[in-house]
Predict the structure of Glycoside hydrolase family 2 TIM barrel-domain containing protein.
Amino acid sequence: MFKQLKLVFLFLLIVNQSLQAQKAQRLNTGWEFVKQDLGGIWEAVRPVGKGNPEELPFWQKVSLPHCFNATDAVDPNVHYYQGPGWYRTNLAIENPYANGRTLLHFEGAGQKTQVYIHTTKVAEHVGGYDEWTADITDAVAAFKKSPLFKTQFKGKVPVIIRCDNSRDLEMMPSSLSDFNVYGGIYRYLNLVYNPQLAVDKVFAHATVDVKGAQGKLTVKARFLNQDNLKDAAVKITLVDPNGKTVFNATKNISSFNDDELLVETNVRSPKLWSVETPQQYEVKLTVTANGQTYNAIQKIGFRHFEFVKKGPFTLNGKRVLLRGTHRHEDHAGVAAAMTEEMMVTEMKMMKEMGVNFIRLGHYQQSRIILDLCDSLGILVWEEIPWCRGGLGGAVYQEQGKRMLTNMIEQHYNHPSIIIWGLGNENDWPGDFSEFDKEKIRTYMKELNNLSHKLDPSRSTAIRRCDFCRDIVDVYSPSIWAGWYRGNYTEYKDVSKSEFDKSDRFLHVEWGGDSHARRHSENPDNALLKIKQGGGADERAGDASLYGGGARVSKDGDWSESYIANLIDWHLKEQETMPWLTGTAYWPFKDFSTPIRPENPVPYVNQKGVVERDFTKKESFYIFQSYWTNTPMAHIYGHSWPVRWGAEGEEKMVKVYSNCDEAELFVNGKSFGLKKRNSQDFPAAGLRWSVPMQKGTYTFKVVAKKGKVTVTDEITQEYQTDKWAKPAKLVLKKVSETNGMATVEVKAYDANNVLCLDAATEVNFNLLGDGELIKDQGTSTASSKVQLYNGRALISLKTNKQKNVVSVSSNGLPTEFLMIEK
């Protein structure tokens, strides 16, 4: 495992991983941005005199990747911006290849993009998630002949880019989707220099039989040949995971019209790619034409997978239970503009949690993520953004086919990918005046056929569109046992019923929301209101906080304690379902959404096991206790400072661990040794009843697995005083380090008793020269947030000045706190 994680950092050095060009550089710095439309391209390039009206609009300096909606997506006081935005920079462009081509390579920009060289539009693209290139060669050459090149622009070339995420019914994804349709150049942008003849794409198809004895590799290439060169020499080299050359081949080619077959060869007993040992080969290409050479490296993996009909999933002939989660490209403070370092951190955390499968919802994601899945041994379901809505017109349908084609061709070589997803919740009416199931079925069949034509080796799948379940290879129904419908104890029976309806079943999306740092002494209380036996499939309106029948999503407390029980039950059941291919928890990380403004953290889907800034919730460790082998132990309640109850009442202390046995110590006294049994719910039998009196408690667990011992320790207060409704808020500075102060608000009743079940919504504000850390979409960095157990935290940069923090809530007096410099 640790060797795999170290290998991740090699991605920071690899430029050609997914067939980048011969010479390329990321264009991260030197950009300016304006968050509005311009009157025309001239406004981006005209000469500007200081103090003159031509200064408008004012441009701000930014670096790439950059998202329009870095903070407004989770600003509780506005709806996120959807419209155009402009970027500009001046580049020194000098292609080293005689008659070579100069490209701008976009790894992803949302959602409609236009590219200009000075005032000349050179390219445009519709779609926020697939990669594409703009050939700027001719426009650059033309601009260099203009006198402006040397006078106004000092020998540099002005590059201007317009991105637009305006609402558009005839564009995927639907604005009904439960995620933001972001705008901006939110993935890396590269300046690429190609020789006259270059490779556009490589299709390296690596297969192996079930026994792993005989591998086969077929390599095709698609060329860029603007000048119609007639002759080229290609050298193909295959290098095994240990760096040993397996074979070399050369080929002279003179035709560049279609995807050219470069080599087809057998590989005896190849080293296999698996989730435990994700071994990768390298295909190296050297293309020489007209005295110029183009080099590329493509990583591949040999593996054999199968979704067994009416059975489990196998990889290389052995059953693998897919232990999965989901990912949105979204993060605190940057929204979609995650850096490579952030992506590495995120995927390492998933592997640390025990994930071996991920569904990338609901769009093609960064090439960096796919590279990381290849390296870490994480199997992938990747899908196009046909999400919610029904079926648009010809433009809409063409975009879906184009994005499916691009996704498959751009990510074809990744051994981690096993499923191409064709859609999500396409049974959702409302985007169009017509909702015709037969037309949706017809289009789904077209996508399914296209996917199999482009890549017969991988399965197709959709989630939640029952009237199309027979079209795709693998189907995932909607099962939200214990959240949107039913009780979590119904999970196995409902899953088996759905399994029996499909040839190949995979359960993606389960779980529920939890407000980080909110805990409960009676978390399952809402289940008493739930009708049993009514199924667990999510239906229209279930996600609403209003109306309809009783459901935990509406009537529960949204505590980490409840979700801990729900997850614990699901995971212990999955160990006793031999027919199960696997599941994927929704999602790994909290993410922003425009349709949930009233959540405890406004505009955030809070179903993640980590917060939007990577802060782990308690549920992270529950997954780890079931899915990992490295010894670990975690006492539930690290973010639960005060428990409550009657004097002498017994309270359950739970330990989540993958160790064979664990011993709990309470204030230094042993409360006995427990053996782990995954089927002994909750906490796999690692739970203790501790009689508690008012005061301070230190809990320590000592757990053993073989010869390895691990420990964990927490301290909690126990409150026996009962409280009434909140009567006042009290602010207090709890820490300050390096100019960053953290304040905490607590809700008390009229008798000064802390209200430990208070979920009041509070609003933080700041007066002074500091900066409130807000609009991050987390429980500790939102200006509007619901209390968790009668408290909430927020931080500020003091800037070494006096600041006044205020907190207010409807019906309670506003509280102020002076932060001295």
User: Anything to note?
Assistant: The two ends are 47 Å apart (CA to CA). The longest strand covers residues 197-208. Residues 2-21 have pLDDT under 50 and may be disordered. The longest helix spans residues 437-454.
